[in-house]
Amino acid sequence: MTMPTLSVVIPIYNEEAGLPALFARIYPALDALGETYEIIYVNDGSRDRSAALLREQFARRPDVTRALLLAANAGQHMAIMAGFEYCRGEIIVTLDADLQNPPEEIGKLIAKMKEGHDYVGSIRKKRQDSLFRTWASKAMNQLREKITRIRITDQGNMLRAYSRGVVDAINSCKEVATFIPALAYTFARNPAEVVVEHEERVAGDSKYSLYSLIRLNFDLMTGFSLVPLQWFSMLGMLVALGSGTLFVLLIVRRLIFGPEAEGLFTLFALMFFLIGLALFGIGLLGEYIGRIYQQVRLRPRYLIEAVLENDVSVQANVSEANVKVAVAADQRQKKE
């Protein structure tokens, strides 16, 4: 079977309302590129009719459509990892199903990849998100770059292109929690970025709550750097030094002015600050220990319920095997 040049991996989670519009736009957009392609939809345990719509779409375009139906929700990045393990193209593009990144923009990434880059990210032009979300995203981008040294201008945008070599390197990693754009950046030798259009969601709401975004950034910080632990260690040393200095000053003050009752609430405030600092450090340490705990359990990252694909090579092998069995049975009958 001829391997496609392009694989497009699209994670799906409760996107029933927007899938018809996605189907109507992505196939013409990819046909216009003039490249052999496949589209891999990964249903991430959707609770609506997304899986049924994927089955119907597979029946319409089985030549270029493949679908992985996960048994339970594994998260966006694990769904993409599942698609990476099944994709066959030399260039792999990830795309969200909400059409905030138009499928017509995929051509820009392909053109950039053909210039010799092995990883191409995208920067949203005139973002259609809320002001708070845009500001928070920029702030987290700056903090992430300082901590991890990973330079991704727009980390929340999943419209990205990867070479086969980068995807193979990602597939070799067995992390149970990761951030795929950052992981790809660590493997890429010649990364690049392009500016793409950005639109409002066709239907539905964002699947990322504020807690999910915070959770994702914790995974990003702790999964790619030890800097948070090192920063906290240095902060602990500074606090210890400051506490020792304060203790000496209080002793000197007591010897000079005698015992005093004033300043009690100041000491309470200082104590509460130190307790909060200690709890923050325990939580930070818990993040790293939690990642270790999840990793050492060696549980599967996702479970695949069904795979919808039209693999000619597999069908040919099955047919050939059936012919051999029939010939062998016929020969046995003749001998008898």
Automatic annotation (TrEMBL):
One of its GO terms (cellular component) is plasma membrane. The keyword Lipid biosynthesis does not apply. GO terms for biological process: lipopolysaccharide biosynthetic process. The keyword Membrane applies. Keywords: Aminotransferase, Cell membrane, Glycosyltransferase, Lipopolysaccharide biosynthesis, Membrane, Transferase, Transmembrane, Transmembrane helix. Residues 7-167 form the Glycosyltransferase 2-like domain. SUPFAM superfamilies: Nucleotide-diphospho-sugar transferases. The chain crosses the membrane at residues 231-252, 264-285. One of its GO terms (molecular function) is transaminase activity. This is UDP-4-amino-4-deoxy-L-arabinose-oxoglutarate aminotransferase. It comes from Rugosibacter aromaticivorans.
